Amino acid sequence: MPETLPVEISAFVSEYWVYLSIPMVSALVGYVTNWLAVKMMMYPVEFKGLGPIGWQGVVPANSEKMARVVVDHSVKRVMTQSELIGRIEADKFIDALQNRIEPFVEDIVDEVLSETSHRGVPVTNFIWNMAPGSLKSAVYSEVKTNLPDVLRRIVDDVSDDLENMIDINEIIVEKLGKEKEMLIDIFQTAAKREFKFIERSGIYFGFPLGVPVMFLWYFFPVWWLLPLFGLLVGYITNAAAIYLIQKPLEPVKIGPFTVQGLFIKRQKEVSRYFGQVFANDLITAEVVMSEVLKREQALDRIRDLIKREVNRAIEASQGIFKPLTVLSLGPSEYAKIGQIISERAFEEFQNPDKRSLRYLDEAFDIEETVAERVGALPPEEFFELLHPVIAEDEWKLIAVGALLGLGAGWWQWALLT
């Protein structure tokens, strides 16, 4: 008996391999169609095709819309721009700015006094160079003493006007809308496990769906059975996988099992990732400053504020400057002093140092805020972070899966007959 067993198994396989292959092909069809659906969500980044016939990944094809989804259902939902600005403690920020500007005070004073003149004759530079060291020190000290008050008024005014200068949410949308690769990476990383599940579920669903067809084909080997079933496998595996990564929103008890949408189940983990992305790439002090400096209206406003406060400081400290400037105090030259200081201060403002940027990043505290607050959103709101990516052109993805299944069914029918 044992000697005849391999022969019997071999005879069984030889006779029934046609039928045994059906569940395996069904699993393969499920996997390939689901794998392709995931790829088609993200790629190609740019449209590929001939004329109007072709494809572009769902996310990059709708990059601005998807970028707005990321913003509207995460940071915009859990914090406001005014709250962000309100986190800046003026004293700490001024201390950081002062640390940047104070080393240049003596250079600025020297520059002012070297570039003013008396009726076109630069006599001030000579007088300043001949001035006693104690007098120079007194001038430097006076300017440094007034610096914190000047900076405070500028920071307060800029903070009050910042909401009119920029819209942080729109900055993020604009950035992600243009940087499609970054947008794709955000979705791929945030939903990495869910996309992997979609791919593998083609096997999980495809194989068992193929078992009843194996028996049907044995008793009813009609030409349309395998193509029709291939279409159904492609459709069902795509649709079921897409549904299960999103829903049910709340845990549902089914016998001994508890079922909940895979993405929803990982809300805390995904929220932490979004917090890191916003903190490291999207709402950094460097990004905010660079955006402010790109906008001419904001630059003009900041330049006017600096000029106003510098002139106010000069008037307040006129007594200490008077012994040196009395020989060149023509109205135009006196005004030139403020202009020189203002332009130099504006140059320094446009090149913030790491200490200032580091303080702003710490004050914003983006990572913890986004992670905690997005992580605490109700499931029906958190669900909207991924749902639009799936819902956009969802019917096309499922239809492609169904058509590929249909083609695989035709191929299998041709092979078996």
Provide an overview of this structure.
This protein is mainly α. It is built from 24 helices and 4 strands. The strands form 2 sheets. A two-stranded antiparallel ribbon has the order 1-2. A two-stranded antiparallel ribbon has the order 3-4. Strand 1 (48-50) and strand 2 form a beta hairpin. 29% of the residues are buried.
Keywords:
417 residues; mainly alpha; two-stranded antiparallel ribbon; 24 helices; 79% helix
Summarize the structure.
79% of the residues lie in helices and 3% in strands. The chain has 24 helices and four strands.
With helices defined by DSSP (H or I, 4 residues minimum), what is the helix count?
Answer: 24
What is the helix content?
Answer: over 70%
Distance between the termini: 34 Å
- Provide the spatial order of strands within the biggest beta sheet: 1-2
Mean pLDDT across every amino acid position: 77
Beta strands, count: 4
Rounded to an integer in angstroms, the radius of gyration calculated over CA atoms is 34 Å
User: Biggest β-sheet: count, sense, barrel?
Assistant: 2 strands, antiparallel
| Low-confidence parts | 117-121, 322-331
What is the helix/strand order?
A: HEEHHHHHHHHHHHHEEHHHHHHHHHHH
Overall body shape: elongated
Which structural class do the helices and strands define?
mainly alpha
Q: How large is the share of residues in beta strands?
A: under 5%
